[in-house]
Design goal:
Blueprint: E1 9-11, H1 18-30, H2 39-43, H3 48-59, E2 71-77, E3 83-90, H4 95-99, E4 104-108, H5 117-131, E5 136-142, H6 146-154, E6 158-164, E7 171-178
Antiparallel strand pairs: 1-2, 2-3, 3-4, 5-7, 6-7
This protein binds coenzyme A.
Coenzyme A binds next to strand 4, helix 5 and helix 6.
């Protein structure tokens, strides 16, 4: 029997998605999860257009290059245009990301969780990583974040070690995903 096709796809934000993006971001606030979704960057942008410009600068590595590596932001969308998850692909590591953050981070909106969104999102962003030549991808999560750890493992992540975050003092799981 053929598996049911997964029609959730990767998108980068366009001006027409202002309302969809707002709905996505506001859901984290409503759930009391302001720390996820890189929400601050959205809230601190005076307009949606400014937010898009900011994301573009990040992708080109032109936003505070002394601090940040180039990073591209993707969203997972359903066929109706509802944004389900956000992910950030960092094009290379720096000493901080080597410990915590890795190449790929993600968050799924609260109402879309436990439906395979993170698993699908990470799989698709891994494809993007391969496209920019990353054959060994580091993905990290808090030691007690079972959902994220499972997401990484289901995408082929092999646990290298656990390290203590110098920022939060939390224990961080570090997984590598090898791709041909
Ligand atoms: C962690 C997170 C990304 C998972 O997203 P999701 O779309 O619910 O994940 P999926 O539906 O793809 O589930 C992946 C696996 O994790 C499991 N899982 C998901 N959430 C879980 C939870 N809260 N507790 C235990 N297992 C969980 C699923 O059952 C599935 O495993 P299975 O196939 O063996 O059953 C989501 O809860 C989230 O956005 N959390 C806040 C932000 C965050 O923690 N981001 C990751 C930072 S490293």
């Amino acid at each position: 029997m053929n598996p049911i096709p997964d029609d959730r796809f990767l998108t980068q934000l366009a001006p027409a998605q202002a309302a969809a993006c707002q709905a996505f971001m506001m859901e984290f606030i409503a759930a009391g999860e302001s720390e996820y979704g890189w929400l601050n960057e959205y809230l601190e942008s005076p307009t949606f257009s400014a937010y898009l410009d900011y994301l573009e600068l990040c992708a080109m590595g032109e936003y505070k290059p002394e601090i940040y590596v180039p990073q591209t932001t993707f969203f997972l969308s359903d066929p109706q245009g509802r944004l389900l998850g956000i992910s950030r692909l960092r094009h290379r590591l720096n000493p901080s990301l080597e410990i915590e953050g890795g190449h790929i981070g993600y968050a799924v909106r609260p109402s879309a969780r436990r439906q395979g969104c993170a698993t699908r999102l990470l799989a698709l962003v891994l494809g993007q990583a391969r496209g920019i030549g990353l054959t060994r991808v580091l993905v990290t999560c808090d030691d007690d974040n079972t959902g994220s750890a499972r997401t990484i493992e289901k995408n082929g992540g092999l646990l290298e070690d656990k390290r203590t975050s110098p920022h939060s003092s939390r224990l961080i799981r570090r997984y590598w995903i090898e791709q041909a």
